[in-house]
Design a protein that fits this description.
The protein is mainly α. Helices cover 76% and strands 1% of the residues.
Length: 315
């Protein structure tokens, strides 16, 4: 057997092992009621976010509104209309994309910053660890929403609300960045605690003996062993990001041309929907927010148990 053939066989064997491990993980995860229910809910919202035009048509505006002001639910408008005559179902489905995309991008930034700082801080230790953790403590002491509330309007004013980057209005980008840079501290703390344990393991000592540098050890040995923890934490971070985006949009920091669920609630409040009894203007976006946060919480709990069997045994 040639060396090339042996390498191919080894790679194929690794792929089979990974596929088998993934199938085993998926079976364990979906066998849990919380994991299954959470996944189904998230799949539904993912479909809504990916293809809103196919499901409810183009986003309705004030000029393309298909109904009258605050019409109650009917056969034509299943969830009624808003104060401008726009179909609430249409707005809610299109709002799914904005809320989910902002949550996803903010989570990526949060997890990337938190994981990097957590691994470096825990592995290097010393003065660097102290400085980074005091920096993280600052963000932990101040609530994420308060920091976001302070930073968002300042950045929007400096950059300009009408600016576009990669087809996205800067208002949404600012919200993404603000959530990301104010939510990383808890992730950093969690990853650091695991890294402190991993750096004392024998495989790290062997890597040092063969001459591997700190950067190589962190990338090739520490990171793969904290990925499970990062993934489980990222799911919960996503839920928090959606809530923060909703709150910022609700108080008027969202983009009126790209409505999210929070912006719909803001519009409902501005129209006095609660006082007028127009519950259909409030309930759909509020229900979506609750369902998404619930789904991520269920999935996060299931992932935590499946990926951390020791934790499951203590419960």
């Amino acid at each position: 057997m040639s060396a090339g053939t042996a390498v191919v066989d080894v790679r194929a064997a690794r792929l089979r092992l990974r596929a088998r491990a993934f199938r085993r993980f998926a079976a364990q995860f979906l066998s849990r009621p919380d994991g299954l229910v959470g996944t189904v809910i998230l799949v539904v919202f993912a479909v809504l976010a990916i293809a809103p035009d196919l499901l409810v048509g183009p986003l309705e505006t004030a000029t393309t509104a298909s109904g009258g002001r605050l019409e109650a639910p009917s056969a034509i408008h299943i969830l009624g209309t808003d104060d401008l005559g726009k179909d609430v179902l249409n707005l809610t489905v299109h709002g799914t994309r904005v809320s989910m995309v902002i949550g996803l991008l903010a989570t990526v930034i949060t997890v990337a910053i938190g994981s990097l700082i957590g691994i470096v801080s825990g592995f290097v230790g010393g003065v660097l660890d102290t400085v980074l953790m005091r920096f993280a403590d600052f963000f932990l002491v101040l609530p994420t929403f308060v920091l976001a509330l302070i930073l968002a309007p300042i950045l929007i004013e400096l950059i300009g609300a009408q600016t576009e980057v990669l087809g996205m209005r800067v208002t949404l980008i600012v919200i993404v960045v603000v959530i990301g840079i104010t939510s990383w501290a808890s992730t950093a703390r969690i990853v650091r605690s695991q890294t402190l344990s991993l750096r004392e393991r024998a495989f790290v000592d062997r890597a040092r003996v063969v001459g591997a540098g700190n950067a190589s050890i962190m990338r090739r040995h520490i990171l793969p062993n904290v990925v499970n923890l990062i993934v489980a934490n990222a799911v919960l971070v996503f839920a928090g990001a959606v809530l923060t985006e909703t709150t910022l949009s609700f108080i008027g920091l969202g983009d009126p041309f790209q409505p999210s669920w929070g912006l719909l609630l803001n519009a409902a409040q501005g129209a006095g929907a609660a006082g007028l009894g127009a519950w259909w203007f409030i309930v759909p976006p509020a229900t979506c927010i609750v369902l998404v946060v619930l789904a991520f919480t269920l999935v996060g709990g299931a992932l935590d148990d499946v990926l951390n069997p020791k934790l499951r045994g203590r419960r």
